[in-house]
Design goal:
extended, nucleotide-binding, about 600 residues, ATP-binding, eight-stranded mixed beta sheet
Amino acid sequence: MASQEGAVLDAQQQRQSVEWFRYSKRVVLKSILCREDKGLGLVGERVVAGGWVKWRKEKAEEGVSELTQGPAEAPDVTCCEVLLSRVPLLRSIARILLGKDGAVVPRPVAGPAKSELVVAYFSINDGSCVANLQIVVDSSMSLLGQVMSVGTSILVEGVLEEIPSPSKHVVRLKVEKILHVGIVDIKKYPLAKTRLSLEFVRAYPHLRPRTTVVASVNRIRNVLSYATHTFFQNNGFLYVHMPIITTTDSRVCSKMFHVTTLFSKSDEMEKLIKTSDDERINLEVVKAAIREKKNRIDELKRSDSNKEALLDALQDLQKANELALQLEKQQKSAFIKVGEVDFSKDFFSCPAYLSFSMRLHLESYACALSSVYTFGPIFQADDSLSPRHLAEMWMVEAELAFSELEDVMNCVENFLKFICHSVLENCSDDIQYMSKHIDKDCIDRLQSIGSSSFARITYTNALEVLNQVNDQTFETKVDQGLSEEHESYLAEKIYKRPVIIYEHPKEVKPFYVRIRNDGKTVSTFDIIAPKAGVLVRGSQREERIDIISKRIEELGLPQEQYDWYLDLRRHGTVKHSGFSLGFEKMVMFATGLRDIRDTIPFPRTHGAANT
């Protein structure tokens, strides 16, 4: 008896678990479709649901329509409507004429109680999960001429019912009211086809989240973001916001974007450019006059008459040539002035850049708050078209005071395991979809992170391992140092899991990393992941002011820009370490995507920022 009561109580609790979105009074589809019973426990519940149409079909069914049970008078319908409602072939022809996926839902025709209704079956998705909800609409719900095609948004009210012959889905929504329809021009809608390549949808970044792959990627990205904050907050880190604009030129690693108002707001610059344009026009006029004067002189020479006119013409030509030379000099001078920027008149009174990395600024807070992290965009102006390069990316960066190299390596390994486990636990449907359609190994790859430790190998030992490879020809010789090709081979072919390569030669790492006792290598590490390449870069920072000052001088960096950074070594220095995780690279690792442009909502690359 008690067990029966418990079962009833569990069923009631499941029925009450439908999730109404507080701010739009609708049910989130995830709360229906992602239950263990796939929504069966909610059969009979009245809900309001909304989403975008993924696919549709219609068929004629015999039934009783409330609209056909009225008086015998014929409603105001046309012959065309009657034919459309009774002849399926004509409906198909009308659908072709109106659009590939569009359809006219005709009104029912008055007559006997039993009539043939047009029933449309829609699959909608609101972005909360991979699964779609099937909704059923009969012709009594729509007006003639209303087109319900792929991409249409719809908000409906109805009752959940069990599908008579369930396959992938077991429940559907029988629509009783249509509350909203956002129509689509099927001839212009770029995502009307059901199968679209990632390359194609990149041209429509504002619409591509409606595709299942991109929607799944962004739900996975969301979980990775949340897990990142959860890990650091649970382990005593403080989240601090770092500046996007910096005056520290760290181009030792990458080209940087300049931040300036000179070219957009300077009246003097605008006048200079306008003057340059005017002079260019005047110069062209003068050159045209010179050509005419030369023709006139040739005519005077051929006629051999009026020597005074010829002499005057030659003098005019000389003056025109002198004027042309003067205008050319002024034009060149104007171009030189345009190219020379006086940053003392700029907004910040000095050169400023979009930050390529926040690690230097983050160190200042680690040297006061002990363990800190930040999560934000970074920018690099390299004109690379590599599928692993973006001009704007997101970076997770952390700094740990009183920590040495091994400490920070342990921290990163635990961090990666935590966020991979979070994806498997909270995005199982999305990961399964990516495994089926993008990369069949992505689930195994995520699971392997948590089940085994990372391989750890020094830079020198990595070269030795690669030198022993006989069945692979590398484009770059191993004795020239590790390349991206070599690193990927280590992670994907030899170790088949993430690899931590540490203790690099000091020549290949930035000035701020700690030099080891041998004077040749530094306390650094890179984590190489299958599919993503370099996922994390980290190091123990150089806390000795004499050594870091010498490194700045050796590399020819502007000493004055780093004076504030050296203050951290002058005043209460401490050993500290940190790392940077390329967030888009992490998404690539989790999903198996091959192109980094598919991991971020609005990709910015060389020559492409059209939204």
